[in-house]
Amino acid sequence: MGGMGGGGLLDIYAMAWEHLRPGSSPVDWCEGNYLISSNIAEFVNTFSNFLFILLPPVLIMLFKEYGRFVTPGIHVIWVLLIVVGLSSMYFHATLSLIGQLLDELAILWVFMAAFSLFYPKRYYPKFVKNDRKTFSWLMLLSAIAATGLSWWKPIVNAFVLMFMSVPTMVMLYTELQRVSDQRVYRLGIRSTTVWAVAVFCWINDRIFCEAWSSINFPYLHGFWHIFIFIAAYTVLVLFAYFYVESELPQRQPLLKYWPKNEFEFGIPFISIRNPDSKDWLVYCSLYMQDYDYDYKHRKN
């Protein structure tokens, strides 16, 4: 019995090492391996994740107000985006199976967290009965089940995640038809355009690698990382806006841009206007220099 137990433990160690071994993933993107660095498999694909690491801390700062007056869950999503970036860097640096799974599962949990927080109630299945808590439990159980299933056929995970983005963008299009704020609408159009460019890069890198390699440009997956981050976080900003407008209209959401609000190609975030709340007025006096002007301007 002791020998069998020891043998079983060795088998577990061997399987774990096999999953950690560089090159153990069945997925290999178009960029050549170990061409720039002998320690990093796909150099460009690894470091093109820089936005996932650098921008979420800025978003956490910009959404401080949103986290306090709407839902602190928004910060969980920004942290998960950092996890996506780190996991993607590890995967492309090693091309290990465990790296691939960490990358894909982090993306899956971003989807599920965002659905739990912001999925419009008008699209809920009937058995949920318009209850966000019940829907959130459904998303959690779905994420757990999908996490287990992801080990079954790792080669198809990326295609499944890509498919999940399609109904999200269709839902975004539907929601944009309901908004009156043209700044929100324009951001939605830009987000959709960037998403389409990102998908173009992903498909071409995955399916037409030989053609792009023939012109010495096997780096479209790196551009995918840049474009998909921009598309993903702007879509999250939009759904954060839709959520407040639909379920907490008294909070008066307003799309703004940092560092200059008039420049619509800055970093978008949601400001919350609620001048009737005492804690809101205290907060604004501490953190929003332009609040007094905006408030007096609206009153006049």
Automatic annotation (TrEMBL):
How this chain sits in the membrane, per its record, is: Multi-pass membrane protein
- Which parts pass through the membrane? 43-63, 75-93, 105-123, 135-152, 158-175, 187-203, 223-244
Task: Look up the domain of life of the source.
Answer: Eukaryota
Top enzyme class, one word, equals hydrolase
Q: Which residues bind Ca(2+)?
A: 28-29, 31, 33, 42
Q: Where in the cell is it found?
A: Membrane
What's a Pfam family this protein contains? Ceramidase
Is Hydrolase found in the keyword set? yes
Name the keywords, alphabetized: Calcium, Hydrolase, Lipid metabolism, Membrane, Metal-binding, Transmembrane, Transmembrane helix, Zinc
**Does the keyword Calcium feature in the UniProt annotation?**
yes
Q: Where does Zn(2+) bind?
A: 92, 221, 225
A GO molecular function for this record? metal ion binding
Q: Name one GO cellular component term.
A: membrane
Q: Required cofactors, per record?
A: Zn(2+)
GO biological process: what's one of them? ceramide metabolic process
What EC number(s) does the entry state? 3.5.1.-
Family to which the UniProt record says this protein belongs: Belongs to the alkaline ceramidase family.
Functional summary from the UniProt entry: Hydrolyzes the sphingolipid ceramide into sphingosine and free fatty acid.
Its protein name is Alkaline ceramidase
